[in-house]
Design a protein that fits this description.
With about 240 residues, the chain is α/β, with parallel strands linked by helices. It has a single domain, classed as P-loop containing nucleotide triphosphate hydrolases (Rossmann fold). The protein has helices spanning about 45-50, 75-80, 95-100, 115-120, 125-130, 140-150, 170-185, 195-205, 225-230, and strands at about 5-15, 20-30, 35, 60-65, 65-70, 80-85, 155-160, 190-195, 205-210, 215-220. It has a 6-stranded mixed sheet, with helices on both faces. A 4-stranded antiparallel sheet has the order 2-1-4-5, with helices on one face. It is globular, with a radius of gyration of 17 Å. The protein starts with 5 loop residues before the first strand and ends in a 5-residue tail after the last helix. The relative contact order is 0.20.
Amino acid sequence: MMATELKVTNVSLFYGASQALRDVSIDVTPGKITAVMGRNGVGKSSLLRAIMGLQPISDGTITIGGKDLAGLAAFGRSRAGLGYVPQGREIFPLLSVKENLETGKIGVARAARTIPAKVFELFPVLKEMLSRRGGDLSGGQQQQLAIGRALVTQPQVLVLDEPTEGIQPSIIKDIGRALTYLRDEEGMTILLVEQYLDFCRELADDVYIMDRGAIVFGGPAARLDDADVRAHLTV
C-alpha cells in the first residue's frame, strides 16, 4: 500500500454560536501514527467529525492524498480513502459480527467486497464469534469489531476516536499491536484521538495537543515527557 497523507489546514468549526475549532492545522504523515491529545471538551472529537464530513466546517481545507474533501459527505470520504472508528464504537447491536463487518463493504467496489483476511489475523476473536450478535460482545470485543469494520472499507487513512476508552488492558495491548502492524507492515496512515498517555507514548510517531479548540503543541511523540508538553494534558 502506498502511504497517503491527510492534511487539515486552518479549519474552524462552529456549533451554532459556539466555536469548537479555531484555525486548526495538522499534518498526518504518510505511513505514520499521529495522535491528537488534550483534556475533555477541547475539540478533539469535533476535529474528527470535521475530517469525516459529519459536521460542516466554516473555514479551512481538508485533503487526503492532495484531494480536497470539500463538499463530500461521510460516505464520499470513505470512498476517498478514510476509514472511521467512532467514539463509543457504534456497532449494530442486533446484527451479527459477520453482518456488522459486511456493512463496511457498502462503499467498496463490488469486485472487492470481501472481508480481508487481515481482519481475522489481527482480531482472531471476531472469527470465533461471527454468528454472535454485536450487542452480546464485551466492550473490548466491540472495539475490535469497530476497527475490523473500518478495515473492511480498505482505507488509506484510518481515523480512530478514543480506541482505548473503557477497554480492558489486555485488549488495549491487542489494539496497540494491530495498529503497529498496520503502520509497519501495511504502510497505513493512522490518526487517533486519545487520552491514554502511555498508549500514545508507545505507538505514536507524532503528537498534537489541543486546548480550547486550538492546537497548542505539535511535534514528535518523544516530547510527551517534556514538562511544558505534559502541562497541557493535566487537569
